[in-house]
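Entry: Putative cobalamin synthesis protein cobW
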Amino acid sequence: MTRKIPATVITGFLGAGKSTLVRHLLENNRGQRLALIVNEFGDVGIDGDMLTTCDIEGCGKDDIIELANGCLCCTVADEFLPVMQALIERDLPPDHILIETSGLALPKPLVKAFHWPEIRSRVTVNGVVAVVDAEATAAGRFTSTPEQMARPDHDNPLEEVFDDQLLCADMVLLNKTDLVDDIALEKARRRIESKLRPGVKVIPTRHSIVDPVVVVGLDAAAEDDLDTRPSLHDSATDHSHDDFESFAVDLPEIADPDALIKRISSAIATHDILRLKGFLAVQDKPARAVVQAVGARIDRWFDRPWRPGEAHAGQVVVIGGKGLDRAAIAAAIRG
Ligand SMILES: Nc1nc2c(ncn2[C@@H]2O[C@H](COP(=O)(O)OP(=O)(O)OP(=O)(O)O)[C@@H](O)[C@H]2O)c(=O)[nH]1
């Protein structure tokens, strides 16, 4: 019998450091043939674009497959299964498959898909790894307030997604340790451990740096013990993302990136924006800039030179609670 191809599912809330982990794993692939399936919330793929342009040895364009149109957990049958089948049927199938889910996806329906007969005989989920933002967790961003708990209709969509991701995990990377002190780190660790299945390890990381073997070398066969991975959505016949939405804002080439960052910062403070990411074109700069906002924190760096003939234009994707005032946010960002 041929060995099953191991697949690692990387889950974690918006902006926790999943793509940072994926990049680290691809860059340190130890000669293995890796394939990556990356899924984003919304229909604009920023993560896949950044990865396919970074020229990682041993990981070609064909090995990175982007599913940027809704959450994997809701599009498993239509989108994920055909992609998996095509990977398995390649003349030279990958040695290992990484699956980065969107920050709003529930991992359990995805793991369930590995029961599909064509896939079950060829691939196993050797681990579900959850990446967690230590700063946001310590600050209680995913925890209901006592006032919310007291409401009879209490539900906190952020907390539900976060909890579902942790409940399905075989391992947790408690990331962004550089942004918290020891007390906050302990607080975050305690909050997480109370939600994990027994025996699940929590590893503190900075920029998702961890020995790759620790992450890809798990041997969990997660599809075989789904019953031990409770989900708040087990009883629901359908899970939709009605609580969240995303849209893109096109930006012309800009002269003053600092002013744009200030405008983004104030839009985040004013509206229910959870995540913003994308690219900027800065006048007289030969390279494309990346902008990444998680909560109120905004990072910016140059990513790669503009290609000959490529339009110097920017675009950011905004993700937030349902009912975002798209026109007001776009106007505030464009200035
Ligand atoms: N300070 C700090 N920043 C980090 C760390 N890990 C990741 N980041 C930054 O956090 C931002 C989001 O990281 P990503 O890896 O894109 O997060 P993600 O989970 O893939 O985000 P989504 O796919 O949008 O859910 C980026 O600006 C990263 O550079 C860390 O350990 N410390």
